[in-house]
């Protein structure tokens, strides 16, 4: 973790404060708080040279606040992701270090505040057989049915992956046995408030959509890459579902705060 010195009164400054307090690093954290991004995209958004962005990203990675993984679509690129659970824990620790009354309950589950108009969400991956249907099911459950949510694939497979069906049933008590992958064409004419891509190929090849929805990206590895059978393959799906569930939980406050006036109905 990023090392810091002592304050004037002899109190050690929490590592999170030192990491997040730098203006460039704060900008990077804020951008990655919305969506996974590549270095060149962060350079454009933050408006700083690439070597400086890379330097600060390395510090954030060393501090455990940011992770990176190679793009599954173009291996020359990497997507950076903000570890929101780690940030929540670090922020809670920083508050408690200042005063016990400022400790945050980071373990409290996030809840969705229903809106006067239901938000409409679309999750997209390549085959619509694992990542996007898992996200669809988990958001529908965690939002208590108050969000219209659907998933689709740019090249859908014939059926949901059996491990996706199994992990949703065994880990979350959600039955999707009757669900089948959907094509993007089957959603023609529908408008969405948010479109979230879960694989790099879908993000980089998805065309523009009606209504100009807000587009986010979650760079989630394909759990099926570990194979289709055996316990090791299933464990990959467990990890993927846990990752997506964490992202969904942290998405709920964002959806609750969405200004619907800015969204094309």
Category from helices, strands and their pairing: alpha/beta
**Mind telling me the CATH superfamily name of the largest domain?**
Response regulator
Indicate the CATH architecture of the largest domain: 3-Layer(aba) Sandwich
Shape: globular
CATH class of the largest domain: Alpha Beta
CATH topology of the largest domain: Rossmann fold
Ends apart, CA distance between termini? 45 Å
Domain unit count: 2
Report strand %: 5-15%
Nearest-angstrom radius of gyration?
20 Å
Question: Could you describe the 3D structure shown?
Answer:
The protein has 265 residues and is of the alpha/beta class. It folds into two domains: 15-102, Arc Repressor Mutant, subunit A (Orthogonal Bundle); 120-262, Response regulator (Rossmann fold), CATH 3.40.50. It contains nine helices and six strands. The protein has a four-stranded parallel β-sheet. β5 (194-197), α8 (200-205) and β6 form a beta-alpha-beta unit. The longest helix has 26 residues, at 231-256.
Question: How would the blueprint of this fold be written?
Answer:
Elements: H1 15-20, H2 23-32, H3 39-46, H4 50-62, E1 66-70, E2 78-82, H5 84-98, E3 120-125, H6 131-142, E4 148-153, H7 162-172, E5 194-197, H8 200-205, E6 214-217, H9 231-256
Parallel strand pairs: 3-4, 3-5, 5-6
Antiparallel strand pairs: 1-2
Helix pairs in contact: 6-7, 6-9, 7-9
